Amino acid sequence: MSLECVASVAGEPLSFIKEQSGRRIEEARKREGLTQRVLADELGMGVRWLREIESGNPKARLDDHLRCAYRLDLSTGHILIPLMFFSQKMSFPMQLVFGDLRELERLCIEVVAQRNLDLLTTALTPRWNNGMRVPSTA
After folding, report:
1. pLDDT tens for residues 39-84?
2. Nearest to 29 by CA among 80, 77, 75, 71
3. Which member of 21, 98, 99, 104 lies 3.0 to 4.6 Å from 65 by CB, making a disulfide possible if both were Cys?
4. What is the pLDDT of residues 13-42, one digit of tens each?
5. Count of other CB atoms within 10 angstroms of residue 91
């Protein structure tokens, strides 16, 4: 990837995400042997709008990208993981652009779930007074 492209990602992360997502959607649609008309009808949108999504139009809504990804059984990691990097003001590793982010997406979910389990366990674990004995009733 060129330095110019990396610089444009830093300036317009949503445009970059929509462009990458549109490519993945188009590739997945073609892999499934679906026409734009069939997919658009299934999703309740116009063919013209699906073309805009696939072309990476910055005006396309992310929820439309997500609807397409769900229907085509694509990982949503190609949308959500770059958003997490950009929201934390971190550089997105460009090597991830071309891979399947399903495993990384799953790992993120597992980390969040484990963190919540740890917090819940801590909250539910009794805190006994150190060195204090509870008087017996016998």
Report:
1. 999 999 999 999 999 999 999 999 999 999 999 999 898 898 888 8
2. 71
3. 21
4. 889 899 999 999 999 999 999 999 999 999
5. 11
Ordered domains of the chain (ranges, CATH): 3-124 (1.10.260.40)
- pLDDT score, position 3: 35
Mean pLDDT of 83-92: 88
User: For 12, left (φ over 0), alpha (ψ -120 to 50), or beta?
Assistant: beta
Three-state SS sequence of the chain: CCHHHHHHHHHCHHHHHHHHHHHHHHHHHHHCCCCHHHHHHHHCCCHHHHHHHHCCCCCCCHHHHHHHHHHCCCCCHHHHHHHHHHHCCCCCCHHHHHCCCHHHHHHHHHHHHHHHHHHHHHHHCCCCCCCCCCCCCC
The residue type found at 83 is L
Q: How far apart are the first and last CA of the chain?
A: 77
